[in-house]
Structures are given as structure tokens and as C-alpha cells.
Amino acid sequence: MTRAVDARLTVDGTTRELPLERSTVGNDGVSVATLLSDTGLVTVDPGFMNTASCESSITYIDGDQGILRYRGYPIEQLAQNSTFLEVSYLLIHGELPTADQLTALNERVARHMHVHSGIKAFLEAFPRDAHPMAVLSGATSALSTFYPESVGRGEHEIELATVQLLAKTATVIAYLQRRFTGGDLIEPSRDGTYVDEFMRIAFSGTDGSLDIDPTIRRALDLLLILHADHEQNCSTSTVRIVGSSQANIYASISAGIGALSGPLHGGANEAALGMFDNIKESGDTVEQFVAKVKDKAEGARLMGFGHRVYKSYDPRGAVVKDVANTVLAELGGNDETFQMAQRLEEIALSDEYFIERKLYPNVDFYTGLLYSAMGFPRQMFTPLFALGRMPGWIAHYREMMEDPRTKIGRPRQIYTGEVARDYAPMDQR
User: Fold this and answer.
1) Residues 190 and 228 in one domain
2) Could you tell me if residue 419 is inside a domain?
3) Higher-confidence residue: 331 or 184?
4) Same domain as 85, residue 191
5) Among 221, 229, 314, 364, the one annotated catalytic
6) Which of 121, 285, 314, 396 is most buried, most CB within 10 Å of its CB?
7) 317 and 248: one domain?
């Protein structure tokens, strides 16, 4: 909400007043919406490091203090007490559900996990070695063609699309896992809970049965919660800017999946696991690897540390570390890699090189270890990230569409090319 003017900008001796946009907590903003029309100037902010593109009431981050809250609830409390669908309801609808509301959501999502036979044929048409993120992006966009009754911006269509996306993308991602194992695409059951059914579709034998370890079930549910939203990150901003053109929710989220596929975004957990492989292949100790990182030696790249937003410990990383301790101890996972991770984290938290640069372990540092212990190949790590982020993308799309102030996204630029010049005929070039 715009309040009294308490910011001013002076350009070429002329001072103009700029209104402040107040937040409920965290950074206020200086509105420059009329700067171009008033002065002929635009702001320059590569990577949008200091630009707020919208107002949002979904997620709050304080990177300096290591705080992450969904709708005001600390991530630590939600991780300890909630289920993924409960958190999905919170993000999308703004409040924690009642028991009846959560039961209704569970039942409705379970009913919609079945996918059209055409989607199965679509998945089978891709090469076996196609990256699953490319397949997932295409399949998500294709959902709009198979379920046209959920395409539109009316309340009923958006609500139906919300359930369709939560349900059917889970089945698609589980089918992508089965493609790696060569298994047939089995039918979802309407009786299972969300995480159980996802794991059954992904890992069961030909008879469709699967005995799910409670520790694994809880760990996967928790990982999905930790990834459910993260404010205006690259993929969420992509969903918003595509949706701002009034593209349907499927097309917008398909674009977000494309943004998530990049190694600087969703692919970071795979890269972190690859870092440990490189250390082992080199024969170095963790201490020797750290020394190479400090010396900027070729090939010694630190992954899973630092974050664009967090300048202290990523609160999600602390939760994931505890889960990794439990899961890997029970499953007897890759103990060598886990011990390397623990040692590397120990060094990073006490070494001035890391402390001065605010290089703390982030959520990606341990998630690859967990996914691998659960039986997922590395190519599936980012699709699992997408599964967790789905309710956040949906919530942001809905919030944007409900805001009457939404305008089509159209950033400006600083042009640095040639000035006006005349066309030269071919024989004069």
C-alpha cells in the first residue's frame, strides 16, 4: 500500500518525489513506476538483484537471518508437523486447512492422478535417454490439450487446474522414474495418499504393490515441503511473467519447469553430488579439495554452498541435514559420501575463507544424497524439485491473476548497439 512520500530522486538538479511501498515485514520498496514517463530514465538492475516485480503475501525470506516462512509459518514448524498436501493447501489458499478440508483435498487429488492414455503415449514417444525435465515441461503444457475443461481464468477452471497439476504431474514424474527402470506404466489407485501413491507408481513391481519404508515416506514428504515455495526465484518469476500475458496456467508452469532445469537453479543438487564424485575420483581428501577451491585450481568447484538470497545458513539445509542423518543411518546409504559431506560442512562452518564469503551449505548440499539413497537416478533430482515446487508456482499464478494491478511483464533495456545508419547495397559492403 502506498503511503506518504519519503524518498526523493535528484537528476540534473531536479528533484522528484518517489512513493514508498510498505511491507508488513522486511524490505520496503521505492516505487519507480513513473520514472520513465517523468524523467525519460529507467533503472538498471542486472539479474533483478534489487527489483521487486510484485507484491505477494505467499512467502517471506530474510536472507541475513536465515528465515523462511510460508504464509507466516516458519519452515521449521511446517517441516516438523505438516504433510506436503497440507502445505500445498496453505500456500494456495492462504490458511492451514481444517481436517475436513485436508481430507477433501487428499481425496480429490487421488481421484485425478490418473492420466489420459494420450499422455502415456506422449511420454513413450520421447527417446529413452531424453532428459526428464524436457519431457516434464512438454507433458505439463500438453495437459491443457487433454483437459480443456480446466483451461481458463474462471474460478472453477483455476481450481480444477490446481488439482490437475498437483495430481497429474506427480503421476507423470513417477512415470519418468519408471522409464529409467524399464517398467510398465501402472495405473494410480484412488485409495492411496499422495506420497505413498507417488512412490508406488514410481517403484512398484509389475503387480503394483510396494512396501514403503516409513522413514523414506516421511523424508520425501519433508523434501517436497522444503521445496514448495521460495519467493520470486527464477522459475517462479518465469511463471509470473508468462502468466502476465494471460497464458493459461499449464503453459506458465511449463515455462517455469524450463527455468528450473538450469544447473544454477534446480540442477544444483545433482551438481553437488557430482562434486563428491570428482573428489573421490581425484583421490583427494576433503581437506585437499578445500585447499584447491581456495587456490581456484582448475576443476575444483564448490557446489551446494552459498545462495543468492541467504547470507547465513539456509534454514532448509539444517532440516535436510537432520533427515539425511536419519535416512542414511537406517538405509546404510553411501556412507563415504555422507561422511565427506559432513566433513566439508564442518570445515566450511569454521574456516574464515567460507565465513567471510558467507558460503554456508544450502538445501542442495544434502538433497542429492537423500534422493540417491531413496533409489532415484540423478536425472530425476530436478523433476523431484519440480514436484515440490508445484504448489508454489500455482499459488503465485493464482495470486497474480487475482491482482487487478497485474500488467504484462515487459522489462526495459539500456541499448548499446549501433546508432542510426543507412542501408548499404550489396556491392558497397
Assistant:
1) yes
2) no
3) 184
4) yes
5) 364
6) 396
7) no
Q: Amino acid letter at 392? A: G
Could you give the CA distance from residue 94 to residue 97 in angstroms, rounded to a whole number? 9
pLDDT, tens only, 336-393: 888 888 899 889 888 899 888 888 888 888 888 889 889 999 999 999 999 999 999 9
Q: Is residue 420 part of a domain?
A: no
62 is catalytic: no
C-alpha grid cell, residue 362: 544450502
- Report CA torsion sign: 153, 154, 160, 166: positive
| 19 touches 31 (CB < 8 A) | yes
Options 229, 307, 314, 396, the catalytic residue: 307
- Tell me, yes or no, whether 208 lies in a domain: yes
Residues 239 and 130 grouped into a single domain: yes
pLDDT digits 0-9 by tens, 214-223: 999 999 999 9
- Nearest CA to 196 out of 206, 178, 208, 210 is that of 210
Residue keyed to cell 504484462: 408
Q: Residue 104 belongs to what domain range?
A: 73-263+377-402
- Domain count within the chain: 3
Q: Residue 216: CA atoms inside 13 Å, Cβ hemisphere, count?
A: 20
CB 375 within 8 A of CB 177: no
6 is catalytic: no
